[in-house]
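[Q] Does anyone have a clean structure-token version of this?
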Amino acid sequence: MRLVANTFKIAIALVCAGHFSFHAQAQETPSSQQQLLKRVNDLLNSTADEATKWDDKVVAARTQAQIADLIWETNPDNAKNYLKAAWSATAKVDEPKRERSTFINPSLRNAVRREVLLVARRRAPARRGCGSDRTSRARMR
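[A] Here you go.
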């Protein structure tokens, strides 16, 4: 699992380095810059695809949501698919075994779902009200 986390950190660092150094380094040719971005994009896509096979669904859902957020500008179709996969992974999150409190019982599943929804909300603002519109139309019938 540490290997996956380290791979993800490296991919994030490469994306950031590629994004921020794109304008800063004039001596680098555009083709090498494009090759670097393509390699980073391929690494992110393969990591998100592999995340569906991970046993730790919390890490898988968070990874897929973060990758969807990173690649949204370059490949929105894959990003949407990764968000859907992240949402599916949240349904499989197991709640840790702990003593229930009478005051507050935070849910790990809900916390991960919140993270996925925040990415979806940030990246797809036009779809925010879709569910409420359907519900209100159904009530009117």
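[Q] Thanks! Anything notable?
[A] Helices lie at 2-24, 30-51, 57-71, 76-91, 108-123, 130-140.
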